[in-house]
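Appendix B, record 7
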Amino acid sequence: MKDLRQFYFFESLDDEQLALLATFSHKKHYEKGSILFYEKDEPKSMILLIEGILKVYKTDQKNNEIIMHRFMPVSLVAEMALLEGIAYPASAAFESDGVVIEVDFEKFKQEFLYNPQMALLFFKSLSKKIKYLEDVIALNIVLDATARLAKYICDKGENFNELKQYQVAEHLHMTPETLSRTVKKLVVLDLLEKDSEGYKIKNRDGLRVLFEFV
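Structure tokens (predicted):
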């Protein structure tokens, strides 16, 4: 119940409802590198990520990973596949040790999804995922490498150093070498500066010019 209570999705539930939910929920621990699910697996449980970093990815014909999204705690994962009753459209693996809570979706649907507030939260979560995918498509079609990185840094704010450079490169669909060159370019343009913790924003308005007027 303590783990369930920390999840924003269940804030409206009282102790009795949380106790009921706990009867068909299971906590699972995963080591770094573990697969949570593979593309085309059939979803059966609602997945709540409460610890760790989870990457969702597809594999191309050359066996290269294409990162679709990285989930940070606390997040609801792959709910669209559950709601639509379809197989997972991508695979998911942990980039760190992690913990999830798996909730039997059929029981959850019977007991809770009729609740208007719960249903609204569910669809808000779906809406955020759709908006994220729209942003990914726009980012990769419209913007060049410099504009993509500038937008990523502005969107993340002071937290843009939270991922390693190779992870940022994957997220922006560029090679690590291209990312390194682009970061140096932003430093030369006096938009970023390097410190002991990585890089920090020196001129946010200057960064915005690179992608807002493209």
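Remarks on this record: The chain has a mean pLDDT of 87. The chain has two domains: 2-127, 144-212.
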